[in-house]
Design goal:
- By secondary structure, the chain is α/β, with parallel strands linked by helices.
- It has two domains: about 180 residues, Rossmann fold; about 160 residues, Rossmann fold.
- It has 14 helices and 15 strands.
- The strands form three sheets. It has a seven-stranded parallel sheet, sandwiched between helices. The protein has a six-stranded parallel sheet with strand order 12-11-10-13-14-15, with helices on both faces.
- β1, α1 and β2 form a beta-alpha-beta unit.
- The longest helix has 18 residues.
- It starts with 7 loop residues before the first strand and ends with a helix.
Length: about 400
């Protein structure tokens, strides 16, 4: 497959609805690829009563909320997914398969029919699953690299999955099984969403010539960036401890001039709500899950957006989404976030977990709301130059053609 010919792309992700940044990316990339003239057949698990369409094929997923013994077997190896992918290959005749997050639902079982049909495989790495059984390289409130990309048994010993020995053991078995089934060797090329992630994967054993960095993208064609002075601080994303949300409320306790709005849901949302109530932090408001125009309006009217992650954030989609709408960002100096913030130009970085440093940055923005507008404009220019959809699709298709040729 050469030149500018259009491709048939089989795209696979566990979920095809908005659960987080990886699902948003999966859906939006497929849309951009189609708009560029390529044919995309997506595969995902059902959320409810979805029916198969000419754009998405659904399989039944694994119940991970209330698992039964048979769910554990299917979590490790899904014969149903293997058969479904084989049928999709026969029907669609893809030139390339693009995998996203497929562990635990589709499972590494799908690699066999793809290789049997000699379909080149590309995978975007949205997290650290290849080298960490619990995806995050994070344990007990801090980054952790003890498994070193291969000693997965340590995750069971240290109960890395929600403090549960049973869950951790299943995660470890899945990691070893996926490795045996070829989750590294059978994938022709990996895409890392940041240079940080790429180097971390290479550090833990992934061949350097097998992974390329392609930063995520955002919609740069929306309305011009907001120019009015902001009225609140904003966090949006998952409500989980590794995202730094507890450090955020600690800092906000010392900056009460403007409200802090927290948008999202997650495993720690109720604990966070209890802590806010216990400390009578009435200027902090939990708004739940929001998307689309309602979320964009909150970004546009903010003083700045805060991304206080305490794990190795793979990229930082919230950062470029904020820039696209003309708002600066305070972010932790960790992971891929450091590749997005130009210190003092479009935002500030602070030491992860350092409440006082974060509070100082918030207080600076509270005093200098006019300068925040100029920093947001600088962020908007940065997004247009580096993170447009058109530029992203071109880079991804170049990776496709590299493995096809």
């Amino acid at each position: 497959m050469m030149g500018t010919s259009k491709l048939n792309i089989l795209a696979i992700n566990n979920y095809a609805y908005l659960r987080g940044g990886s699902e948003r990316y999966f859906l939006e990339l497929n849309k951009l690829l189609r708009e560029s003239g390529h044919r995309v057949l997506a595969m995902s698990t059902r959320k409810g009563n979805e029916t198969e369409t000419n754009k998405i094929l659904y399989i039944d997923g694994v119940n991970l909320d209330h698992p039964r013994p048979w769910n554990i077997g299917k979590y490790l190896y899904s014969r149903e997914a293997e058969i479904a992918v084989g049928r999709a290959i026969e029907r669609f005749k893809p030139d390339v398969a693009h995998l996203h997050i497929y562990y635990g639902q589709f499972t590494a079982s799908i690699l066999r029919p793809l290789k049997k049909a000699r379909i080149p495989i590309v995978q975007t790495l949205h997290e650290y699953k290849l080298v960490c059984p619990v995806y995050t390289l994070y344990r007990n409130g801090a980054p952790c690299e003890d498994c070193q990309g291969r000693r997965f048994w340590k995750a069971a010993h240290r109960r890395c999955n929600r403090g549960s020995i049973a869950r951790s053991l299943v995660s470890v078995i899945e990691s070893y099984m996926s490795r045996i089934l070829g989750n590294v060797e059978k994938v022709d090329h990996f895409i890392g969403v940041s240079e940080f992630l790429r180097h971390k994967m290479i550090q833990h054993g992934l061949p350097a010539d097998k992974i390329t960095t392609v930063h995520n993208f955002t919609d740069c064609e929306r309305e011009p960036p907001a120019r009015e002075v902001g009225r609140h601080f904003l966090y949006f994303g998952r409500i989980e401890r590794l995202k730094g949300v507890f450090t955020l409320i600690d800092a906000a306790e010392h900056v009460k001039e403007f409200p802090l709005l927290i948008v999202g849901t997650g495993n720690d949302q109720y604990e966070l709500a209890d802590e806010i109530e216990r400390r009578n932090l009435s200027h902090i408001h939990l708004l739940g899950f929001k998307t689309g125009e309602s979320l964009e309006e909150l970004i546009r009217t903010s003083i700045c957006v805060i991304a206080p992650s305490e794990w190795y954030e793979p990229f930082g989609l919230t950062v470029i989404e904020s820039f696209a709408l003309g708002r600066p960002v305070i972010a932790s100096r960790i992971g891929g976030l450091t590749e997005l913030i130009d210190e003092g130009v479009n935002g500030f970085l602070f030491t992860p977990g350092n409440m006082r440093e974060l509070a100082e940055r918030m207080r600076w923005f509270a005093i200098n709301r006019g300068l925040a507008i100029e920093m947001g404009s600088a962020g908007h220019s940065n997004v247009q130059d580096r993170f447009s959809g058109a530029n992203h699709v071109e880079q991804v298709v170049n990776v496709y053609r590299k493995v096809i040729n």
